[in-house]
TrEMBL record:
Pfam family, one: Multi_Drug_Res
Main location, first listed in the record: membrane
Membrane protein topology class: Multi-pass membrane protein
Origin: domain of life: Bacteria
Gene3D superfamilies listed in its UniProt record: 1.10.3730.20
Location(s), subcellular: Cell membrane
Protein family membership: Belongs to the drug/metabolite transporter (DMT) superfamily. Small multidrug resistance (SMR) (TC 2.A.7.1) family.
Protein name: Multidrug resistance protein, SMR family
Transport in keyword set: yes
InterPro entries: EmrE-like, Small_drug/metabolite_transptr, Small_multidrug_res
The organism of origin for this protein: Priestia megaterium (strain DSM 319 / IMG 1521)
Organism ancestry: Bacteria, Bacillati, Bacillota, Bacilli, Bacillales
Length: 120
């Protein structure tokens, strides 16, 4: 279930950041209200994610995937520049997220068991 919460947190964060761009510095009311709503939703779902996933893993995936998606939205909808350096940076973020995903699950299960024992 934590992966569903994390995906929702990412989608709401991306919607909030897109609304931030559309708000024109809080001048446009509807995008300004939406950005606050979307960020509240994003943080709520991220908080639910943290009940069963390590904060270092969840936050890295949340921010990394948000950066990737927002960068693509910037390229496609806001006509932002594309450069080799940006593409390489995004590729490195993807590699980092995949690596964290591969190692994080095993470590998270071991750490959670240890933490639960200490809290008893």
């Amino acid at each position: 279930m934590h992966w569903i919460y994390l995906c929702l947190a990412i989608l709401f964060e991306v919607a909030g950041t897109t609304s931030m761009k559309l708000s024109d510095g809080f001048i446009r009311v509807i995008p300004s209200v939406l950005l606050i709503f979307f960020y509240i939703c994003s943080l709520c779902f991220l908080t639910l994610t943290l009940k069963s996933l390590e904060v270092s893993i969840a936050y890295a995936i949340w921010s990394g995937m948000g950066i990737i998606i927002i960068t693509l939205i910037g390229f496609m909808y806001f006509n932002e520049s594309v450069s080799l350096l940006k593409i390489v940076a995004i590729a490195l973020i993807i590699i980092g997220v995949v690596t964290l995903n591969m190692t994080g699950e095993k470590e998270a299960n071991a750490s959670k068991s240890t933490l639960e024992e200490h809290m008893r």
